[in-house]
């Protein structure tokens, strides 16, 4: 059984930074990992993904140049460094794991496991 637990969310002013963490437990971590977000009244959307051994990364256009995804396979943790935050980044951020991603980057439906999410609120 895989469990993903996010942390690091909070309230920050526009222009500030936050670092999200996602700790994984379970039989394997050597898979594609991703971050998604969902704002009130909106669909869940892709934010960033990182491939096995961090060989490749992908970002949504809206966060490119501001967010950085990384992973530490030893401690089974994936990170999302978020800089230059904007009010439109306000959402619940979810960590996700795709065991057999057939496309890159994986869409929401490609993921097999999800965390419960962590709230990020950016004030103007």
Helix/strand class:
mainly beta
| Principal-axis shape | globular
Mean pLDDT metric:
95
Number of helices: 0
Radius of gyration from CA coordinates:
13 Å
Q: Fraction of residues in helices? A: under 10%
Largest sheet descriptor: 7 strands, mixed
**Secondary-structure element order, N to C:** EEEEEEEEEEE
Low-pLDDT runs of 5+ residues are: none
What amount of the residues lies in strands? over 45%
| Total number of beta strands | 11
Distance between the termini: 40 Å
SSE blueprint and pairings:
Elements (H helix, E strand, L loop, with lengths): L2 E5 L2 E4 L4 E8 L6 E7 L6 E6 L6 E3 L7 E6 L4 E6 L8 E8 L14 E2 L3 E6 L1
Parallel strand pairs: 2-11
Antiparallel strand pairs: 1-3, 3-8, 4-5, 4-9, 5-6, 7-8, 9-10, 9-11
Summary of the model, kept short:
With 124 residues, this protein is an all-beta fold. The protein has no helices and eleven strands. A hairpin with a 4-residue loop joins strand 7 (67-72) and strand 8 (77-82).
Describe this structure in words.
The chain is mostly beta strands and 124 residues long. The protein has strands at residues 3-7, 10-13, 18-25, 32-38, 45-50, 57-59, 67-72, 77-82, 91-98, 113-114, 118-123. It has no helices and eleven strands. The strands form two sheets. Strands 2, 4, 5, 6, 9, 10 and 11 form a seven-stranded mixed sheet that branches. The chain has a four-stranded antiparallel sheet with strand order 1-3-8-7, with no helix packed on it. The mean pLDDT is 95.
């Amino acid at each position: 059984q895989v469990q993903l637990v996010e942390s690091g969310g909070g309230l920050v002013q526009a222009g500030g930074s936050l670092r999200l963490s996602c700790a994984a437990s379970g039989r394997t971590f050597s898979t594609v990992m991703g971050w998604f977000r969902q704002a009130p009244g909106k669909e869940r959307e892709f934010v960033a993904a990182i491939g096995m051994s961090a060989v490749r990364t992908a970002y949504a256009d809206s966060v490119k140049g501001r967010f950085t995804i990384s992973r530490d396979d030893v401690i089974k943790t994936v990170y999302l460094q978020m800089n230059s935050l904007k009010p439109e980044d306000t959402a619940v951020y979810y960590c996700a794991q795709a065991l057999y991603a057939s496309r890159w980057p994986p869409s929401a439906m490609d993921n097999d496991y999800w965390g419960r999410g962590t709230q990020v609120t950016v004030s103007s």
